[in-house]
Amino acid sequence: MSREAMGSMPDEPLFVDHLLEVLKANGVRKVFGLPGSAIGPLLQGLLMETGIDLIVSRHESGAVAMADGYARVTGGLGVAIVTSGPGALNALPHLAVANADNSPVLLISGEAAQARHGRGAFQESGRDGVDVVDAYRTCTAYSRSLTDPGSAVTLLDNALRHALSAPRGAVHLSVPVDLYSRPCPSPVVPGGVSTTWGPSVPDEAADMALTALLTASRPLILLGNGSRQALSETPSLGAEFVGFCARHGLPVATTTKAKGLFPEDQEEALGVVSIGGSARAHAYIERPLDTVLVLGSSLGEWASRNWTPVLQARDTFIHVDADPTRIGRSYRADVGITADIALFLRALLRADARRRGQDGHDGHGSPASRRAALRGLPPIHPSVPAEYHELTPVKPQVVMHHLREWLSQDAERILLLDAGNGTGWFTRQVPVSPPSRALLPWGMGSMGWANAAVVGAKAARPDLTCATITGDGGFLMNAVEIATATRQRLGAIWIVLQDDSFNTVRQGMNHAYPGSRHITDEVFRLGAPDLAGLARDLGAQAHSVDHPGQLAGALSLAEKLAFEECRPQVVRVHVDPDGPGPFDDRNDAVTDSFQIH
Fold this sequence. Notes:
six-stranded parallel beta sheet; 24 helices
């Protein structure tokens, strides 16, 4: 942006110029946001900047979810910009989602000019208004207000370092509108912000973990979302890890958020061990485990299936995470290793290579005996009863059957799952293996997130199929962002399971209070809105599915048109609301928390 346009010709760059250069140096090519006067100079800078595209959303929460989707797909920084007051507060929930899932997202919010602070300036933040910085402090890795152009350079670098360094997270900066037009000193070290990795892994720690795994008869490796950067964004390391597990017959399960990080077609794969997870994983852990290695999971309530005690190993429990506060908080860790997962895996693989070189074989345990423990277990993904394929409304399991067939085709796809029953059905029934990916907001379980995040994902990878699987409740929360996709000519796909209800909550309430169903059936209804009509009004092509036989064709056509016409596609499927849902274990835990006995 020219200084003439800003009405100034200082020797130093203006802060807005410096900000845009820093973003470009860190690989940012798209910024998502909503216009407002408190970010006017930044908007002008982006409009004049040819290296960064501004994608205008329809709501601030949508902008942040798009930036989050963009970050998760690229593996780099996602950026959202919003104005002051309600604009900043509207963005909070989905920035909390990004932080809970360790997604590197920077939110820049507007602020009144500093000269007007303390006098009731419009949408003023700070102690004399709504303190937006404080509001974000507990749900981000870093939240600061920029006040001085000299310190602003440093604070911007600090924010990006927090976002991009392990364990990564969301950050927030509140920028007074007048700061953009002020000159700022050049940074001491120009260019991109350096990221900080965890400490290196000593050889003895890797050797100890390897010995514990290879001498175990019933080991378990549990992958959490904290392993995503190591396994998904570094394909060669992921392939080496898969080979290591196959060579030694080591069973691998994942949390819901990490679904698909380990190929679910491998013999050693157990599937998802979390709430609503795989019968195979649940059956394996019901017999005592002697060694458990956890990689990058918080082991929170959802991830650990209500903190099931059977995950506590009899002999050795090893927990590796970049965030030391997660180690030992839910399960006693015999060994805790604070390290980036990629560094740990490389150390483990080196230890394995050393041992094979010294011993001339793969270890002291028996891969065959470990594989024998997997025989007789249920399959990861159950088949669908034949009679379901003719029933209407469509059974959710049948939708998942067709998604399974769709994903089995030889193409890389990115799926973003919204919070709801659809996530549970997908987790149980649809295999995911690299290079395809499943991305979930399960740190916070935020409804509506995926319906906007899919736009950011498609903006990041227009060459790939990017689709969201969502219920009608979540769809209605952020369906307006279809208009953003239309405006940007992004052929994202929405697969909407319409059961005309907030069904996860409805079924949970009916489980806890069986006599309430005659009330919940009506109270939680959505009013049977015309979702296909809404989609068309927002610029999408809509495909209505009311019979199982229509589904395969609708998915195929939607994917074809998404690329040919660069236009959003909505596949609306009328599904049965009354079959038993996929979260029986969650419903039991919720009922218990209600103290109903």
